[in-house]
Amino acid sequence: MTFTIQKGGAVAACSTQGGELTSFQHQEIEYVWQGDSRYWSGQAPCLFPVVCRAKEDRVILDGISYPMPKHGIARKAEYTPVQVAPDYVVFQLKQSADSKQAYPYDFTLEIIHQVTDDGFSTTYRVTNTDIKKMPFCIGGHPGFNCPLRVGEQFSDYSIRFADAAGAVAHVTEPGSGYMDPTSPALDVIQNNELPLRYSDYDDDAIVVENLPQKSLQLVNRTTGHGIQFDFASFDAIGFWTPIKMNAPFICLEPWNGLPGGLDETPDMADKKYVKYLEPGERFETGYQVRVL
Q: How many folded domains does the chain comprise?
């Protein structure tokens, strides 16, 4: 089921399948990747309770090993719409017999999409409804059209950070998608700017940590047209476009958690940036997008 939400000249579409925001249009320009299966059929999945690929495609929880699909259990689930208003929607996902095959906890995951006059926000709200402490990671994977206008090229665009002083960038390992802490940092961010070049993604995603400010712009360097992307409550961010496909989009992926590391075990406690909720506790994070 798809819901349309709008405010002023901005309109978005949100689907109960995956709880995704599948379209955002402002002044007749579509900003969200439309899911062409020739490149990538996804659009803006929620990653929970792992980010990207877990080590050995499994997680160890309370000493027991569970198979864990890439990006977790929430991205392809059918959500329940629990609140629908003209400018926002709240989708909800709870544990099921299937989810407990991979993640043995009772939980509530809510995804809130809200439009503004010139943008939108996506909020993730996780509540531990179990009787035991619950570890998890959570992240976004929204794809944005790049270029945005006819006649432009991917390489016309840059990611400009509000402040990248001291930030560290790495690429995930080709094939496995794991993080290698021994690999040298990438020298791709200069003067707070990461120009978009397809060749930078020939191995896999670029992951940036230690940003002093969790704010960036995806913009055409000549016109300044693009989006502002704020993700203050996330620990890291990944950037991805399909390998060697010259795809017309880039994913901006804010994460609380990281892909499995070559130096870690499948134990959930080993995961960098893992979060914990005591019974009854709630965790909230999200990102905001504004048209420039």
A: 1
Residue 281 and residue 59: Cα distance in Å, rounded? 22
Are 221 and 215 contacting, i.e. CB atoms less than 8 angstroms apart?
A: no
Distance from chain centroid for Cα 10: 22
Neighbours of 163 (CB within 10 A): 13
Indicate which CATH number applies to the domain containing 60. 2.70.98.10
CA-to-CA distance for 141 and 133, rounded, in angstroms? 26
3-state SS string for 84-106: ECCCEEEEEEECCCCHHHCCCCC
Distances in Å between the alpha carbon of 186 and those of 41, 171, 213, 234?
28, 7, 19, 21
pLDDT at 27: 94
Range of the domain at 178: 2-291
Residue 181 — pLDDT band, cuts 50, 70, 90?
confident
Q: How confident is the model at residue 15 (pLDDT cuts 50, 70, 90)?
A: very high
Q: pLDDT digit string (tens) for 153-167? A: 999 999 999 999 999
